Structure formats: C-alpha cells, structure tokens
Amino acid sequence: MKKSAMLIALTAAAALGQQASAVTVTIACGSVGQELQLCKDGAARWAKKTGNTVKVFESPNLTNDRLGLYQQQLAAKSSDIDVYQLDVVWPGLLAQHFVDLKGKVPAAEVNANFKAIIAADTVNGKLVAMPWFTDAGVLYYRTDLLKKYGYSAPPKTWAELAAMAKKIQDGEQKTNKAFAGYVFQGKNYEGLTCDALEWIASFGGGSIVDDSGKITINNPKAAAALNSAASWVGTISPKGVTTYDEEPARGIFQSGNAAFMRNWPYAWALGQGEDSKVKGNIGVSALPAGPGGQPAATLGGWQLGVSMYSKNQDAAIDLVRYLTGPAEQKIRAIEGSYNPTIASLYQDKDILKANPFFGSLLNVFTNAVARPSGPTKDKYNQVSQAFSTAVSDVLNKKMSGGAAVAQLSANLARIKGRGW
C-alpha cells in the first residue's frame, strides 16, 4: 500500500475553453486493480463534457486505511475532497457528513439500481450515496488444471475444494515448488471479515450479528467453519496467506501459481489481460458450501457520495450522476469487470460477452450476504475489527474456532453495551 495519497488533475480539452463558471471537483478513488485508471478515465470524460476540472485523489488500497483517512478529513470538515468513494458498509457510519441526494438525483435514476443497495445507501430516510458498482465474493479456478487432474466441474463444497486443491497442488509442485492449491484474503483487515463471513454463512453459522442486533456468532457451525479454514493454512494454502489481501492473492493466481482463488469480480478482466499467464484458462463459480449449507458470498461494492463540506456541491452531484449512470457503468463492466448496480445492464450483450459469469452468477450477486453494518450502526467498524482479529487468531493457530467465537461473543457484547 502506498504510504501517501496522490493527486492527479484532469482538465477539460483545450478546444472547449475554460468556461467562466467552471469549477474544480476533487474525487477520492480506490486503487485496487484497474480502479484508479477507470476512475480517472470516467472523470476525464465528465470534465471534457462539462468544461470543469477534476482532481483524482488516490486513496489507500486497504479499506481500513481508507476509512481512517476519510474520517480524519470529514471530522476536520475539510473541503479538500468533494466526492468520496464509500464502501457499502460505511453509510451508517458516515451519514452525517454527506449531502442527502434524495431529490437532487432524479427518482428514475435512483430506482434503476438494485433496491437492496439503495436501501444500504439510505440512512434514516437520507440517500447518503449513489451505487457505483456492486461486488460479491466468487471462486476462480484453473479450467486447464481441473481437466488435467480429471475433474469435470468446480467444487460444490469446501471439503471438495480442499481435496481437489491438494491433488492439483501435489501434482504441480513436482515441477513448481511455488504452486498453491488455494489462495484467499487472510490478512487481518476488512477483507478477512468478508471471506470469513462467507465461510460461516455457508456452514449455516449465521452472520455474526442478526438483523435485530442479536449477537449470534457463538455457535458450533461458526466454530467449525473457522476450524476448516485454519486447516487450509500450510496444507493447500501457503502459510503466508495470513498476510494476503486482494492483490497478492490475485498476483499468485494470475502468475499461474494457484489452482483456486477467492476474490471479487474485478480480477476477471485482469486475468484475461495480455500479461496474464492464465489467460483463457480461468473459470468462475459460486463459492463452495459447508456441510448441509448453501454457498454464500459477502456483499461488497462501492458508492459515490458528496461531502457536506464541498464548496462545489452542484458540480459534485453532477459528477456523481455521470459516473454512476448506465453509460459509465457499462464501460467499467466491460473494461474492468466491475459489476453494475443497474439491473437492466445484466441483459446487455456487450457486458455479458466480456463477463460471461455475470449472467450465470446473477443470483450470487443479487442474494449476497450483507455484513452486519445495519444493526451495528456506528459500531460496525469495531465489530468488524473484533471479528477479523478473532478469525486471524484461528488462522494463525493461536486458538481454536470454538474458543475464538466464545471470546468474540463476549467482546461484541461489550461493544453492544456501549450502544448500537
């Protein structure tokens, strides 16, 4: 992760001339995969269209670091950033700092998006942000290696994944000692919260805290899910997996050194790039299920909100409407495999040609499991950090799944006692 953020100015084409009313708008964008470049490109198109200038603020890779930086800016009521890129779990935490877009963005534009995402972006009747792209965890696999080792389909259960990964890993390591069966996001950060919620939900172990705010994590199925994941470390997954976020996992898979990977849809377009050693040999499926459970994918995705402290709110709102509109969402889907939040785009032939799995896995994206940011409100960040730390302890063999969920339940009760 880069220690310092970077500003890139994007100005309108000289042929347009500088309008008397032109303003400069600063947007904070992520930098995972192609995120930053696609944000720059979209912002440049808006600048050319309007005659305004856009500055792109490059945010830290890790969501936890990004949130901390944003909170500092917003607490200071800084006007340096006009438009923020917000994680789907942040609206409840940051709502007071953002302009209510209800009435400022036409209802037809709002209603074109998935209802569940608009609901997540709405806090006490206030539309905090507009959806930009949605996400859900998926399983990537090497189609050539499955065929080589006699498998006709990707794994349906975690036990099948472990067996397949071990067989393929053992075979490939005869000529490539760096080869791993399975890579995922095992670092102690928000990404681990996402991965571990998928394990637990797929085992039938709930969602940490239920919709009513009840703490549900201390149960045998949740403990079994964490023990299962811990068994992968050092067997089908490198010991170093406990330090991986999205990009290190993608790097290993894309360089041809893993059979399976859990990641977000953005990795598809990069995996099909000219520099990818696995181009043309990648399959995508729903994540596996636990014993007697169902596949589960954590709901991810990012939104764009306008700061209350912006000095150019009208232009900032116009930029948000432009970037979250169907034309820009289509470009991002085709060029970067970022999932649209506008339902009609899932019937777009160009998008489906570029991302075949968007159609076959539509149910995965529309029924993804939400992290408990709704019921835990402004305490979500504390809840997530407590959860990922407990999971990290299990992965690093510091405690068992049963001990971890019991201790976590007590820790969450203390957080709840301070009000959520």
Helices and strands in order, then pairings?
Elements: E1 7-10, E2 24-29, H1 35-50, E3 53-58, H2 63-75, E4 83-87, H3 91-94, H4 107-111, H5 115-120, E5 122-123, E6 126-127, E7 130-136, E8 138-142, H6 143-148, H7 158-172, E9 180-183, H8 190-202, H9 220-232, H10 246-254, E10 258-263, H11 266-271, E11 282-285, E12 299-306, H12 313-323, H13 326-336, H14 349-354, H15 357-360, H16 362-366, H17 373-376, H18 380-395, H19 401-417
Parallel strand pairs: 2-3, 2-4, 9-10
Antiparallel strand pairs: 1-3, 4-12, 5-6, 7-12, 8-10, 8-11
Helix pairs in contact: 8-9, 8-18, 9-19, 18-19
Count of separate DSSP helical elements: 19
CATH topology of the largest domain: D-Maltodextrin-Binding Protein, domain 2
Name the average pLDDT: 95
| Gap between N and C termini | 32 Å
| Count of distinct strands | 12
What would you call the structural class? alpha/beta
Largest sheet: 6 strands, mixed
Q: What is the CATH level 1 assignment of the largest domain?
A: Alpha Beta
- Strand arrangement in the largest pleated sheet: 1-3-2-4-12-7
Query: Total domains, how many?
Result: 2
What does this structure look like?
This protein has 420 residues and is an alpha/beta fold. It is built from 19 helices and twelve strands. The strands form three sheets. The chain has a six-stranded mixed beta sheet. Strands 9-10-8-11 form a four-stranded mixed beta sheet. Helix 9 (220-232) packs across helix 19 (401-417). The chain starts with 6 loop residues before the first strand and ends with a helix.
